Amino acid sequence: MDKFRAITVFRRVIELGSFKAAAEDLNLSKAAVSKNINELENYLKSPLIIRTTRRMNVTENGLRYYNHVRNILDEMANADLSILEDTQQLRGELRISMPMSFGLETINPAVCQFMKLYPQVNIDVLMSDQYVNLVDQGIDIAIRGGGQLKDSSLRSRKLVELNRVLCASPAYIENAPELLEPDDLSFHNCLIYSLSLSPTNWVFKNENEIRELNLLAGSYVVNNGLALKQAALAGVGVILTPEILVRDELEAGKLLRLLPAWKVDAHALYAVYPYHRETSHKIRTFIDFLSKLDRK
Q1: Which long-range contacts (CB under 8 A, 24 or more apart) does 36-45 make?
Q2: Where are the domains of the chain?
Q3: Which CATH architecture has domain 164-265?
Q4: 271 Cβ contact list (under 8 Å, min separation 6)
Q5: Where are the transmembrane segments (predicted)?
Q6: Does residue 151 have a pLDDT over 70?
Q7: Which residue has better confidence, 18 or 150?
């Protein structure tokens, strides 16, 4: 038995949830995956995975063994990286996940600048407003909005705070009810970004008070920030969005800032990465680069 291969196969079976998925991920046959698991179980004299025709279940010993070997494999990979990554010249591949709208507007131009500085680094970008599983998809860094990390195997670093602004097009405002205070939004068509942590809960503050609104979704709900901006530009309704996504439109008068005396909490942007890659020079360098960019 090749023990290193067997525990590597075992780890991917657990993480991907099936023998077939692990076989595809490791470029092995399903029979080869089964053989590695059987040999490992025979060596340990304990069942690790209970297989039926429809599903698989990890045993208590299997889960405990997985937690041990995952840490060992991660440390081995990290040890290799500490030697392979030349601190003077970055090289290799960096897989990055980023939200579609903010990625296109801000992060992707920064990635292009980074590639000019480090031409031997190959960048593989996955743009999606949906959260991705870093382990399953082999992602080194994910750029995400705020929120508590649910996976203890991940670490995060705050990059920047994004001020948000309430705005709409002049055409919409001309024909809409008067908007003098947050409560007036109940008479407006509020367009909703569905992947927000609180899509219809908008909180406004001024020097004297806080107004928390639980809005009914308007006529347009979408999971993409650029699509939301396009709807606002078309005069469909009011949006609450990061200011950086509408800065040019505000300066050009295509969108108007609403309720300027009231503020909403900023959203934080984080770099999220697997905990075992904390010492990766390549990852640290990229995150440092992003954190120094001016996005005010």
Answers
A1: 36/1, 36/2, 36/5, 36/6, 36/9, 36/10, 37/6, 37/9, 37/10, 37/13, 39/1, 39/6, 40/1, 40/3, 40/6, 40/7, 40/9, 40/10, 43/1, 43/3, 43/6
A2: 3-84, 92-160+268-291, 164-265
A3: 3-Layer(aba) Sandwich (3.40)
A4: 141, 142, 143, 156, 157, 159, 287, 290, 291
A5: none
A6: no
A7: 18
Residue whose entry in the numeric block shows the structure tokens 């990290």:
78
Mean pLDDT over 59-71 rounds to: 89
Q: Is the pLDDT of residue 268 over 90?
A: no
Q: At the topology level of CATH, where does 3-84 sit? A: Arc Repressor Mutant, subunit A (1.10.10)
Q: Do domains 92-160+268-291 and 164-265 have the same CATH topology?
A: yes
Residue 274, C-beta contacts closer than 8 angstroms, at least 6 positions apart: 74, 134, 135, 140, 153, 154, 155
Taking the C-alpha atoms of residue 153 and residue 175, their distance in angstroms, rounded to an integer, is: 51
Confidence of residue 165 (pLDDT cuts 50, 70, 90): very high
The conformation of residue 183, written as its DSSP 8-state character, comes to: G
The candidate with the shortest Cα–Cα distance to 280, out of 94, 98, 132, is: 94
Return the DSSP state at 5: H
